[in-house]
Amino acid sequence: MFTIIKGFMAMNTTNILKSLRKKINLVDESIIELLSKRQSLIKEIAKEKIEKKLKIRDEKREKELLCFIEKISKQKKLNTQLILKIFKLIILNSVLEQKKFLKIISNKKINDKTISLLGPKGSYSYIAALKYNKYKLKNYELNMLSNFKEIVCAVELNQSHYGILPLENTSSGDIEEVFNLLFEHDIFIINEFYLKIEHCLLSIKTSDIHKIKNVYSHYQPLKQCNKFIQLFPHWNIKKISSSSYGMQKIMQSNCITNAVIGSEEGAKLYGLQIIKKNISNQKKNITRFIIISKKLKKNHKNIPLKTSIVLKLDKNINNFLEILKIFKSYSIVIHKLQTHINIHKPTKKFFYLEITNDLYSNNTIKFIKEIKKIVDFIKILGCYPINNI
Ligand SMILES: O=C(O)C(=O)C[C@]1(C(=O)O)C=C[C@@H](O)C=C1
């Protein structure tokens, strides 16, 4: 009798579960419908912006909107951090959609093979992308974006096949922002290469070093040239989205007091003069660029390969000793080992590792299985050919 009642209750619970799941389906359908409505509005906004020649991205509006979202999600007692994360992604997606729409409207041929990078033309990423495109991709269209996050999201959201990002530099070290994006987003490294970066101080042709008051650039070139900059304490240093955006701005402003730190190639593109060449802290200023993709790539077995991994451990330091033992027992060779701080939660650390092993070899597969047992979090960031400087 008791078993019959239990069986009946179980059946009843299953029916309740079924009906609740049906309700969830309806709620999810409404969410999708609302997102589709939002997407249509985004297109309308894009048309208006194109007509009125307004910038696609409106950071002030984004801030206001996120404040509003935060307020109402708190009122509804939702996980505010999660909701904000979702909305930041939705907004970023609409920026990328609007930029794509702008291209269609302005009758630019849309190539389905694109590589996203920090633009506009003349940036170091542009020079790196031209080089990579010439040797490896051929005929991929360059999709110029305004920051590293947009590049990562364009690839993650399948709006672009590949992305190109600087990862580290001999003068400024690791680019933490890019490492954090790799850890947080669903993308993979499929290649790497090195590029010599020769920073120059550029201005319009009628200026000279004594007239300069404002110096513009992306935060990376500014960091890589900080010793040179320190020689001119009266300069106002202005961080902007890219060195080439700075070139565009000073060319348009036509003002003798403005200068930008950027490339010689960029100077030619924007008709600027080079006031001083090679101003980096180190003579051999080299940047390591990576190519990112939505999918992990399998490589030929007969070329030397590197696998990048990120790990998060709990506070127990002994864990790391355990990890090292596993490395030893599988004869894994560590090429690089670094700790990185989570930009959003500075108390949280990640371990970033590069091993000179093929991710798909039986030995590496077994090694990763072992590691997974003792870490809090592991993400394979990619497997790609080793490209020495
Ligand atoms: O309000 C706008 O201007 C929009 O284009 C919409 C939107 C959004 O998705 O909410 C997208 C991009 C802007 O940077 C700000 C907001």
UniProtKB/TrEMBL annotation:
Catalytic activity: prephenate + H(+) = 3-phenylpyruvate + CO2 + H2O; chorismate = prephenate
Protein's pathway: Metabolic intermediate biosynthesis; prephenate biosynthesis; prephenate from chorismate: step 1/1; Amino-acid biosynthesis; L-phenylalanine biosynthesis; phenylpyruvate from prephenate: step 1/1
Any one GO cellular component localisation term in the record: cytoplasm
Subcellular location: Cytoplasm
Alphabetically ordered keywords of this record: Allosteric enzyme, Amino-acid biosynthesis, Aromatic amino acid biosynthesis, Cytoplasm, Isomerase, Lyase, Multifunctional enzyme, Phenylalanine biosynthesis
Keyword Amino-acid biosynthesis assigned: yes
Keyword flag Heme: no
Stretches assigned to the Prephenate dehydratase domain: 114-294
Residues of the Chorismate mutase domain: 11-102
Pfam families, per database record: CM_2, PDT
EC number(s) per entry: 4.2.1.51, 5.4.99.5
Annotated positions binding substrate: R21, R38, K49, D58, E62, S94, Q98
Function description: Catalyzes the Claisen rearrangement of chorismate to prephenate and the decarboxylation/dehydration of prephenate to phenylpyruvate.
Name of the protein described by the UniProt record: Bifunctional chorismate mutase/prephenate dehydratase
Species classification: Bacteria, Pseudomonadati, Pseudomonadota, Gammaproteobacteria, Enterobacterales
